[in-house]
Amino acid sequence: MKRLLTTMTMTALMVSGFSALPTQKAEAATTYKVKITADGVRVRTGPSTAYRVVGSVNSGQTFNYLGVSGSWTKISYGGTARYVSSTYAKKYSVTTSTKASSGFSRPASGPITQGYGGASGVYGYTFHNGIDIGAPTGTPVYASAGGTVITSRYYGAYGNHIMMKHTVNGVSYTTVYAHLNSRSVYVGQTIAKGTKIGTIGATGNAFGAHLHFEMHRGSYVYSGTYAANSVNPLNYFN
After folding, report:
1. Whole-prediction pTM
2. Which one of 95, 104, 169, 200 is most buried, by most CB atoms within 10 A?
3. Distance set, CA 13 to CA 21, 22, 23, 123 (Å)
4. Among 129, 210, 225, 140, which Cα is nearest to 174's?
5. Under a CB-based contact definition with an 8 Å cutoff, are residues 207 and 193 in contact?
6. What letter does residue 7 receive in the DSSP assignment?
7. Which helix (H) or strand (E) holds 41?
8. Phi and psi angles of residue 19, each rounded to the nearest 5 degrees, phi first
9. Any signal peptide, and if so, which residues (predicted)?
10. Residue 32 pairs with which residues in a beta bridge?
């Protein structure tokens, strides 16, 4: 009887152990593309017939969707942002699933040229809310974690910059990628960790090509004199 009880207990523990194993999670990334619905559709440099024609596309061809301006759809054509009439462009979504990676990773390769923390004030701030990664213009920049794009624009001291919202281990974070040479994502897009979102540049208030990268716990709150809700990214990379 004692042996039977021991066997039953071991069996229960094994079943309990297996049932407690977490299911493998995945990150879903949604991108948008455009399918051309007619032959001979003209591709222009801007969103009207007043802009120069730089080529033509035919029915069935697909391109990455970059946005819309009035009755014109913005596409990636030969690696450059161009426009086609929305009458002949059908937008559709593509969702891919990849194995989830926990935590954050370095968004670009290159040395740390300025760390997180106190600063001299020579550039207008006495606290550096992020880290700077030095690299040549055009070096790829990747999403540090899976999340949603909440900002993608050229504005102010950040120049070309992207902000993303993430939830990692139940905690909300906002990341900032600034001084970019180019941006390849748009607001509302869901991005998987490691997806290329732009390239390093020197736009805005930048002295030499580099990526200025910030992490904020919760929403974005900036201060040039203290940490506010920013955190040191180097403590989060895995």
Report:
1. 0.62
2. 200
3. 12, 16, 19, 61
4. 129
5. no
6. H
7. strand 41-44
8. -70, -20
9. 1-28
10. 93
Contact between 137 and 180 under an 8 Å Cβ cutoff? The reply is no
Give all domains of the chain, ordered by start, each with its CATH number.
28-98 (2.30.30.40), 112-235 (2.70.70.10)
Selection from 19, 85, 80, 22 nearest residue 48 by Cα: 85
Distinct helix (H) and strand (E) counts, the chain: 1, 19
Residue owning tokens 């992207």: 162
What is the sign of the dihedral through the CA atoms of 201, 234, 145 and 148?
Answer: negative
If we measure between CA atoms, which residue out of 105, 125, 107 comes closest to residue 116? 125
**How do residues 110-147 score in pLDDT, each as one tens digit?**
999 999 999 988 888 899 999 999 999 999 999 999 99
Beta-bridged to residue 142, according to DSSP, are: 196
| Tokens 């490691």 sit on residue | 194
Q: Which residues of 66-88 are buried (b: 16+ CB within 10 A; e: fewer)?
A: beeeeebbbbebeeeebbbbbeb
Give per-residue pLDDT as tens, 15-45: 333 333 333 344 455 678 899 999 999 999 9
CA neighbor of 175 nearest in space, from 165, 167, 161, 183: 165
CA torsion 176→177→178→181, rounded to 10°?
Answer: -160
More confident residue, 49 or 238: 49
Taking alpha carbons only, the member of 174, 167, 165 closest to residue 216 is: 174
